[in-house]
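name: query_chain
kind: protein
chains: 1
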Amino acid sequence: MSEVTIPNKEEMELAYEVIRKLRVPSVPDVITEVQKLLAEPNLRIDEITGLINKDAGLTGEVLKAARSPIYGLSEDVTTIFHAVKVLGVKRLNEITITVALKASLDPMNEFHHKLWEESQITAAGCAWLASVTGHVDRDEAYLTGLFATIGCMLLSQASTKYEILYEKAQSYPLTCHELEERLTSTNRSVVGFIVAQLWSLPLSVCSAIYHMHDVSLQSPNVFPLGPLIGAVRTSICFMEQHGLADVSETAEYLKFHDVARDELMLDQATLEEFSEYMESLG
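structure:
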C-alpha cells in the first residue's frame, strides 16, 4: 500500500443509499465552531471556553466526562476554563466531541450502549499508546478509536438482523465486511468513513476507520495510517484479553496483533504497562 486510499465511488453510493434512511449523528454547531477556532494560528482559549459555556447541557456533560477515570486527573475540574488549564485544548476538544457524539446518538438501545462503552475504552487505549510511543498524534489516535464502531451502530438501524450477525460473526467463515454487505449492501468501514467525514475529522482518521477491518491489509506502511490502525487493533485485543469487549468483535483483530505491535514498535515492558492500564479502565 503506497498511499492513503478512500472508498471508491461505488462503495460511497451504496453506503449513502443505505444511510440516507437512517438516523445519522449530526454535528452540533458548537463542534463546528470549536474546530474552526482550533485551526486558527492565533488560538484564543477564552473564545473556545466561551463557545462551550453557551451550551449549559454540553458544559455539564463535558465537566462530568473530564472527571472520568479515563483522563486520570488528580484534581477536581469545576469550570471549562479550569478543564483547559488542566487538560489542555486538544484533550478538551476530545471530550467535547465525545460528549456531542454521544448526545447525537441518543437514545441508545442496549446494543448501542455496549458499542459506545467499547469505543470509549478503545479511544483511551489509542491515546495512551500514542502518548507513550510518539508514533502518531494523540488526538487523531483518540478520535480513530472513538469512531471505530460508529458504522456498526448505524448498520444496526438498517436491519433487525444486524445485532445477531454482529454477535455471531466469529462462527461464520466470512469476514465481517462480507457478512454486512450481504445483509445491507454496505459495510461498517465505509459507513464509518462517511460519518467521520461529516464530523470533519482528519483524512488520516477517516482512512484508518475505512481500513480498520481490511483483512488483506496486513501491514499498512503509510504514516500515520499504520500506527493509527495498529493502536486500535492493539487496544481491542487487550480489551478482549481483559473481558472488556465481545469476542466476535475481536476475532479478526487477533490475527493482526503481532503486526500491530510491530507497527507501534512495542516492547514487552510497554505491552505489560499497557495491559495494566486497559485493565484499570474496566
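note: The radius of gyration is 18 Å.
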